[in-house]
Structures are given as C-alpha cells and as structure tokens.
Amino acid sequence: MSMPVRTEAGAEVRSPLAAEIERRRTFAIISHPDAGKTTLTEKLLLFGGAIQLAGQVKAKRNRKTTQSDWMAIEKERGISVVTSVMTFEYGDHVFNLLDTPGHEDFSEDTYRTLTAVDSAVMVIDAAKGIEARTRKLFEVCRMRDIPILTFINKMDRETRDPFDLLDEIEKTLALDTTPVNWPVGRGRDFTGTIEVQSGGVRLLEGDAGKAGTLREMSILEVAALNPSLDASAIEGEFELVREACKPFDLQAFREGHLSPVFFGSALKNFGVGDLLDALGRFAPPPRDQKADKRVVHAEEPRMSAFVFKIQANMDPNHRDRIAFARLCSGKLTRGMKVKQIRTGKSIALNAPQFFFAKDRSVADEAYAGDVVGIPNHGSVRIGDTLTEGEDLNFVGVPSFAPEILRRVRLPDAMKAKKLKEALQQLAEEGVVQVFRPHDGSPALVGVVGPLQLDVLRVRLMDEYGLEVSWDVSEFTLARWISSDDPKTFDTFVRSNSSSVADDLDGDPVFLARNQFNLDYTRERAPGIAFADIKDVK
Ligand code: GDP
C-alpha cells in the first residue's frame, strides 16, 4: 500500500514512517451477545468501502449460538478466518478492526485479541444496559488501560432512560462518560440526535447518520417533525445534559478513565459515521508496547511484532496455518527476514497478508498498528515475538488457567503417537491447553468452556482421523508453579510428582483435585508461587 503522507489537521509531518503509523487505528468491539456487534461491524465496513452491501460480514447471522451452529461455523473456515481482522481506510485513517468470538467459551481467544488493540468500542443494547459479558471484557480492557468509546445501540427500539444508562456505566464500570450526542425521542419516536457540543442535529431518515448531514435546527423545529414529541421536555432534558455532563477530555479518554458516548442504531446505520469519525479523531495511534527488556515505541524504524492468534486450516488440503501478528514498531516489507526470538530462527516473510471483509491480499508493506497474517506450517506460535534481530520478548499475551480438565480417551491405542502430535498442534494454535503429567499417565486437556471440547473432538476427527472421547479427570484445577529458589522448587515437584504436569512450553503446572486441595498444598509450600495466568513468551 503506498499512501500519501498525511497527518491530522495541524500535526507536523515528522517522517513518512511516523505519519503512516500515526494514521493507524487498531481496535476491537466488545459487547454482550445480541447487542449488535455484527451489525455495527457491517456498517463500519460499509463506511470504509470494504464491502459493497451490508449483510456480507459473516455467516454469523443465524448463529444464536447452538453447538451445531458453532461447529458449522468452525468448518466454514473461510468465513471465520476473514473476520479475524478487517482492514479498511476511511478519511485519513487506516482502521484495523479485530474481531473476537461471540461465544464466551472462546473467551481466551478474545482476551488475547484484546492485547493487540489500542482502543475498543463498547456496544451496549439501550434496552439492557451493561450485561455480564460486556462487563467482563471491559475489565480486560481496563487491565491494559485501553481507551473505550461507547455506542449505545438500538435507539430505534424501546430503551431505558439515557441518563439511567450513563449512570449505570459510571457506577458499575467506574468509568466517566461524556455524551457526544443526545437522542431525541426513543423507540418508535426516535427522531434523531443533537450534538452536545455544537447543537447540530442529525435526523433519522433513510441513510442519515453519515457525517455531513449535520443540520442547524432548533429543538422546536426537530420536535415539530414528530407530533408525539414534547418540545419543552426535550429542551429541558438537553439543558440538563449540557449542565450535568462532563466535557470531553482527550487525556482522560486516552488514559482509559472517560468514555465518549454515542447514541445510535447500527441497524439503521445511524450514529455509525460519528463513531468512526471519533475513532479517527480521538482514539490513539499505535501505543508503546512493553517488552521484557525495554518499552518499544511504535515509531522506531525497526520492525517488531507479536503473534496473538493462530488460525489453522484455511485451506484444509494443505495443513496451513495463519499466524496473526500485530506490528508494534516500524515497517514490514514483503520478503523481509525476521528473527523468531523463541527459537532464534530466521523467518522470511514472503507472503504476509492483509485481510479485508471478504478477501485477503498480499501485503507489500505494513506499519506499526497493522495486523498481518503470516502463513506457516506450525513453526509460529501464539506469544511469539518477531524482530529485525533485537533480542526482546513482548510481554502480556496471556494464557489462562483452564476451567475444565479432561483426560483424553483414545480407543485405538495404535494411534497414540498421532494423538500426541495432533494435540501439540492444536495446543500451539490455542484451541486447547495440553498438560503432560510427570508420572507418565495420559495427557490432560484443559479448556475454558465446554464448547471448546466439542470443537476439539470434531477437529481431531476431521483433520486427523482420530476418534476420541473425554474421561472426567481426578483433577479440576491447574496452576502454573514457580519459585525463586530452585531447590525449594525441585523438592516440591519431587514430592508432588503425581500432581505435576508440563504444559505446551514445558512450564510446570500443579494439578489440584479441588479448591481445598489447592489451598492446602499452597499453605504448605510457602516458597512456591501458584499462578492462574501465564504470560506467553
Ligand atoms: P451480536 O450478537 O452482538 O453480533 O448482534 P447482532 O449484530 O447479530 O444483532 C442482534 C440482533 O439485533 C439482530 O437481530 C439485529 O438485526 C438486531 N439489531 C442490531 N442492531 C440493531 C439496532 O440498531 N436496532 C434494532 N432494532 N435492532 C438491531
């Protein structure tokens, strides 16, 4: 992609590299299922010209997520793959929208994806307010101080009181809010919005909502459009908004303390343009990234990246895999050689890819903030750092202790070796965690949600011809163990050998039968740290 050098109005052009990086906006949408994430994604892509018609984003439409639906989607890999990241241009900006799985059983994937974004859009159903999954995902964003823009969706339906919704965000998330626009009427009477700052009005008509249709109208004129609206009530409410709501503060937003709020309707494409403009204007360009040895700045000339997601079997005939890498600094050019820090090996990036709504194409150039797909046959793993040579590892791509542990039962013992290989590959892809007990007993698999076990079983069957079932394990919890003192550690591992296993990377975990067993062991092993989150290196 060769693009003209531009910056935000008034910004100084420092270098072509800096200007390219500064116009990147890499974000995700967080929401509870059904709030409208898919619909909003479609509309955002429409603005970006990435798709011609809304409705093409995914086969997710009917996914209301029964098991069989999910399995079907998993099989339609072409579809789920193109939605992992969607790159589009709008105005002066390049947007990378990272998609996250809808079902909470795949939340680990979502958490890892959130390590690769610089901001997030929180979509809230105006009739429901903050729901469980929104809250959880918000907490993950907060851990990294990711700035959040809020889109209160479905204003064309019956909604809760807007003040009430803002109040709920402030109280339950401890997040300040600033409404950017304010709804006039709700549900059937939803007529449009007023911009709080300028007083400009947008009317809900046809394809309105797109930037440019801001009108100068008085509240009386707006109210006159709809006989069921009460002009003086609207005036009073708007007065209150102006008096009571905090002004927008860019710094507080970028630090993750304050969220600009947009009222709109994704379905009616209303308010979506404002949201996209705000992402361009307010959301931060690629942030600095923490590595073990130092902090890496986006505008450093040398390329660095980390892998946060692996997607396998884009083409089932060749067991190929795409590793999704977030560029943290510099510029990637096609054909460049990078160092994979974990192995010390050099990898040639001969066919890095960009993803659009429906297509992918070879990326000749990519910049910090961009996400590129790197085809490979299993050599690249989640958490891998790639650099132009410098030895450093980005920190913070997490592994989470599984909530469910199962022993794999393989009726055909002749296939044990194949199973081992298959589990290794699927674990590298992040589909499942595998733990190999020190005492030589069969491997355990660990997942966050039961749906993952179904996907695993089907994939073992379809891709490896392995028929497996799950046995309940005597263990229910796994914790990564470590100690500052190698001797203490060795003693612990030796005296608990039947409860210690190695994970994919050879890092030891303690397997506990239950919470009591874990607490009991922990109390009696003062020099040992038990962790339920591991940073993947
Ligand atoms: P997701 O589960 O968050 O991806 O939600 P979807 O985008 O699939 O939307 C869930 C349902 O809400 C679908 O039936 C959408 O058509 C509907 N929907 C989404 N946005 C709006 C909106 O702004 N207004 C109305 N009335 N319905 C909406």
Tell me the layout of helices and strands.
Blueprint: H1 16-22, E1 24-31, H2 37-47, H3 67-75, H4 77-82, E2 85-90, E3 93-98, H5 107-114, E4 119-125, H6 132-143, E5 148-153, H7 162-173, E6 176-179, E7 181-184, E8 192-195, E9 201-203, H8 219-224, H9 231-244, H10 250-254, E10 258-263, H11 272-281, E11 289-290, E12 295-296, E13 304-312, E14 321-329, E15 331-333, E16 337-340, E17 345-348, E18 353-355, E19 360-362, E20 365-367, E21 371-376, E22 385-387, E23 397-400, E24 404-409, H12 416-428, E25 433-437, E26 444-447, H13 450-464, E27 469-472, E28 477-482, H14 486-495, E29 500-502, E30 508-512, H15 515-523, E31 529-531, E32 533-536
Parallel strand pairs: 1-3, 1-4, 4-5, 5-10, 6-10
Antiparallel strand pairs: 2-3, 7-8, 8-9, 11-12, 13-14, 13-22, 14-21, 15-20, 16-17, 16-22, 18-19, 23-32, 24-26, 24-27, 25-26, 25-29, 28-30, 28-31, 29-30
Helix pairs in contact: 3-13
Guanosine-5'-diphosphate binds next to helix 2.
Quick gist of this model?
It is built from 15 helices and 32 strands.
The overall strand count is: 32
CATH-defined fold name of the largest domain: Rossmann fold
Q: Give the low-confidence spans.
A: 1-5, 51-71, 73-82
- What small-molecule ligands were found? guanosine-5'-diphosphate
Question: Helical content, roughly?
Answer: 25-40%
The CATH C-level name of the largest domain is Alpha Beta
User: What gyration radius follows from the Cα positions, in whole Å?
Assistant: 25 Å
Beta-strand residue fraction: 25-35%
* Largest sheet features: 8 strands, antiparallel
Mean pLDDT metric? 86
Helical element count?
15
Total domain units:
3
Distance between the termini: 31 Å
- Category from helices, strands and their pairing: alpha+beta
- CATH level-4 homologous superfamily of the largest domain: P-loop containing nucleotide triphosphate hydrolases
